[in-house]
Write a structure and sequence with these properties.
It comes from Piscinibacter gummiphilus. 44% of the residues lie in helices and 15% in strands.
């Protein structure tokens, strides 16, 4: 299926590793020009080089997306380089810090406002700043795609992840509202909800690529929460997500907007 993404310009936040990296690579493979955002220049540059070495077209877009001025500059630089931004993928996010023993985050009453702010700033304000920066250009040309990555915790709530659940739920509510406001401008706004994802940026524990149900007891327990994992015997991987992003970023999804789509192995079924 040709997604007709050749020559489209995509900005992917948190594109330096894991799910974000795979999204960048797959969009580039479909012919899109990619702005690889990451807070860490070595990550962004490495992914951009990976794309360019494969014959694609990409540039690193190093910026802290919790800084509105930095986001505005990143968007301006991206437009100066590629002429426009057709696709925004809000992928950057942060999860609560987990306790060393057992790897379980603390309950809400055991957390503090400094930790709340860190979670909300990246998951919510980072997305808001990026959307505000790209929307005027999309409105002017009457077209654009915004795909935001959230968590199933934001759709159903999850104990020990109260602030994170709330921040991810904000992504969904905001996206539905923006989809309504900008449908008349032919701008599609959708959300992908994830569960646990194993990727190369995680070096140890149940989510590390080297973990198997045989060598990691926690992973064996986690697989039971995902219906399709019971058959595939694995957790979600970045390539399970990136194909859905590419589809929603394409005109094949022209009549899909304001939706939350779970790519979480059936963790929740809404």
């Amino acid at each position: 299926m040709d997604l007709h993404l050749k020559g489209k310009v995509a900005l992917v936040t948190g594109g330096g590793q894991g799910v974000g990296r795979r999204i960048c690579l797959d969009l580039a493979a479909e012919g899109a020009h990619v702005l690889v955002n990451d807070l860490f220049s070595e990550r962004a540059n490495a992914v951009a080089k990976e794309i360019n070495d494969a014959g694609g077209k990409a540039r690193a877009a190093v910026a802290d997306i919790t800084d509105e001025a930095a986001v505005d500059k990143m968007i301006a630089d991206g437009v100066a380089s590629f002429g426009t931004i057709d696709i925004l993928v809000n992928n950057a996010g942060i999860i609560p810090e987990r306790r060393e023993k057992g790897g379980i985050p603390p309950k809400f009453l055991q957390t503090d406002p400094a930790g709340w702010k860190k979670i909300v700033d990246l998951n919510v304000y980072g997305m808001l700043y990026c959307c505000k920066a790209v929307l005027p250009g999309m409105v002017d040309k009457r077209g654009g795609k915004i795909v935001s990555i959230m968590s199933e915790a934001g759709r159903v709530g999850e104990a020990n992840l109260a602030v994170y659940s709330g921040a991810k739920a904000a992504i969904l509510g905001f996206s539905k509202a923006i989809a309504q406001e900008h449908g008349k401008d032919c701008i599609n706004v959708n959300v992908i909800a994830l569960g646990a994802v194993s990727h190369e940026g995680i070096k140890d524990g149940a989510l590390a690529p080297s973990a198997t149900p045989e060598n990691n007891e926690r992973l064996a327990k986690m697989l039971k929460a995902y219906p399709i994992s019971r058959g595939l015997n694995r957790l979600c991987r970045p390539e399970d997500v990136s194909g859905m992003v590419a589809f929603l970023a394409s005109d094949r999804a022209a009549f899909i907007t304001g939706q939350s789509i779970g790519v979480s192995g059936g963790f929740t079924m809404l």
